[in-house]
Amino acid sequence: MKIILRAAPTLLLLLTIWSDVSFTQAGDFTSQLAEREAVQKAVDFLIRGSADWVRERGCFTCHASGLGAFVAGLSARNGYVVNQHEYDINARFVLSHLHPDAEGTPPDGHQPIGAMECRKCHRLADGNGNVSLIALMGSGFALGRQTASRGLADQTGDIAKRLLVAQTEKGEWKPDYNRPVITSGNVMTSALCSVVLKESASLVQDVDKSAKAIQVWQKSLDRSALTKTTDVAFALLGTASFEASGPSVNELKSTLFKLQNSDGGWSWQKGEGSNIVATGQALFALAASGVPRDEPHVGAAIDFLFARQKEDGTWAPVGEGKDFNKFVQRFTRTAWAVTGLSTILDVNGLIAKRSEVIKELEQTLADGQEGEKLQRLARVQLLLRDVPGAVKSCEQLIAMSPKVPAYRLALARTYLATGDRTKAAAAYQEALKTELPTETRGSVLLTTAECFEQIGQRKKAASIYLQLADPQGSLSFTRARRLLARVTALDTELKLRERYGIVTGWEVCGPFPNKGDDGFITAHAPEKGEESPWKRFDSDDPAGLFELSDAIEGETDVCGYARLRVSSPNQKQAQLRLGSDGPVAVWLNEKEIHRREGTRSVAFDQDRVEVSIPKGQSTLLIKVGQNKQKWGLVLRLTDATGKALNDVKISPAAAQVR
To answer: Which of 99, 244, 283, 341 is most buried per CB count within 10 Å?
Structure first.
């Protein structure tokens, strides 16, 4: 099998290498298809993984999200299927770093952009800093302009303009973030910036300015001084995109070949063991510079990577250090493996010969089980952009076994991959009628709600978000709080007191000293029944979180009190379900009914206190301590099953009905 690679003349950068494939014997399509299916599995992991992390936790490091945007754009450019819905989730997240509003409002799950917490984590700089992040996501948007990121032209152009300003007088772009597995050094950052400028030149008013910026960087690049694999690889990437061929390109190729280890992989630098990240980066650069699939160095690198790919499509650690089974580690290794493999093994050549590929595949599947054949066929049809064919195959599977959830989910994801959220939502709703595992059901509900939100069915979306955010559900407090915030954005009343029994209106008093928790042990005026100054405070948090620091002045080593007046038409058994960051104590009508010391992260229902509420009016007093941690409190008044007690009134600091 011989693959002849040539650069597409209509594209500005050599990263997309269209394949003119010469098939000379039976099985050629099948073997190439198997390689590309393995890469597609890894692409699916990256796209879904970055979206799920943003959904669940917000930021796992903005630069890893930027790396996800880069690989997604590159993979789409090379013909791979990028789930449009999940891609959009990550793209919106990383884009929010470009335009925080004047108050620094963060994207979901993120510290305020530019705030001290954000700067500590991501080293954000003022003005035109944060070059590493915008180089990563900008290159992805630029590469995917005709595919996944086709709706982001304005944002891509804005990134290009920022990079023009951020270039140093010497001609390079300096990274503000250095992690070898994500982004590393001036050469890599500058090469990615040049990709953005070249691929998005038409989006910048002064096209010559972009070309000149790339030329200045090329002149400043001292290729003879490069010894590390990453530096050589990205110097080759940038140089090949600038001059396509010539002595500089050949010199860098030769250097990269010399750095390759005998096992086919590359290490960070000569003499070390091979690793996945460096190998992916080297293969990416070689493919982008026109080195073909059947070149021995490239073939050895492909074998090295595929031999170490896991069943789930990700890569095990090889030379990068211990694997602690952390998502970010798997994500970054897989991302760089995909950059190399998706570029050298692009799908475009197979898409051009789709009917022949499908015909050969059907012949190889002739003796298999019907269900297995249709599943494989549906995956391949989607990979080769035969969406109607993939839909038909999924529908045949459903007709054969209507109660099998996997078939309905495959149909929904087929629609979702193309961005058809209306049909995807309908397919997901049908899947929800089958027996789904609890975790899968939650994921399907969330995706369905997101689809409804995107197609303008706001009430349906809000209803599902409220269902998922129930305090007794499986979501973390952070996730539930984030979904409730989305409900308010959809102009739907939360009605926290009525729906969940959450208290949002308080009377507060404090602060009182609490150094070393001494103040929590000490009885201050409010719990001794002495006259104290109280003031009203209403929490506008979507989950009813009461941050005492918003109502009480005092930085650290303090404690404070919150008070409610509870009115019940008769004696009633109830539960106080509390969550707090610090130690907490509770009194009902001056009798202590609960005390818990120690610190934690606030969440729903961390403590459940059985209580008998007397007929008439009672006073509930809560003391919350704080040292140097956060100072949050959340309270639900419920029955024994966790349902809201709506016939019990809270006054005079009654919770707002929202």
So the answer is: 283
Please give the C-alpha separations between residue 230 and each of 75, 116, 135, 274, 275, in angstroms, as whole numbers: 20, 31, 16, 13, 12
Secondary structure string (H, E, C) spanning 116-144:
HHHHHHHCCCCCCCCHHHHHHHHHHHHHC
Residues of the chain within CATH 2.60.120 domain(s) are 496-650
Question: Which residue pairs from 374-377 have beta carbons closer than 8 angstroms and sit at least 24 positions apart in sequence?
Answer: 374/400, 375/407, 375/410
Q: Which residue has the higher pLDDT, 16 or 67?
A: 67
Tokens of 496: 């926290």
Specify the domain boundaries for CATH 1.25.40.10 within the chain.
359-489
User: 223-255 as b/e, with b when 16 or more CB fall inside 10 Å?
Assistant: beebebbbbbbbbbbbbbbbeeeeebbebbbeb
**Residue 239 gets which letter from DSSP?**
H
Q: Which CATH superfamily is domain 359-489 in?
A: Tetratricopeptide repeat domain (1.25.40.10)
Class of domain 496-650: mainly beta
Q: Was domain 2-13+36-350 assigned CATH 1.50.10.20?
A: yes
Q: Give the span between the Cα atoms of 378 and 372, in whole angstroms.
A: 10
Q: What is the pLDDT of residues 455-465, one digit of tens each?
A: 999 999 999 99
Work out the angle between the directed axes of helices 28-57 and 370-383 (0-180°, nearest 10).
80
pLDDT of residue 110: 53
Asked if 156 and 70 count as a contact pair (C-beta separation under 8 A), the reply is no
| CATH 1.50.10.20 residue window(s) in the chain | 2-13+36-350
Burial 275-304 (b: 16+ CB within 10 A, else e): bbbbbbbbbbbbbbbbbbbebebbebbbeb
Cβ–Cβ under 8 Å, residues 374 and 380: no
Q: Which two tokens stand for residue 61?
A: 């490091």
Q: Which residues, 6 or more positions from 229, have their beta carbon under 8 angstroms from its beta carbon?
A: 256, 259, 266, 267, 268, 269, 278, 281, 282
- Give bridge partners of residue 579 from the DSSP assignment: 634
DSSP letter (8 states) at residue 19: E
Instruction: Give per-residue pLDDT as tens, 103-121.
Output: 444 555 555 444 545 554 5
Could you tell me whether strands 591-596 and 584-588 are parallel, antiparallel, or unpaired per DSSP bridges? antiparallel
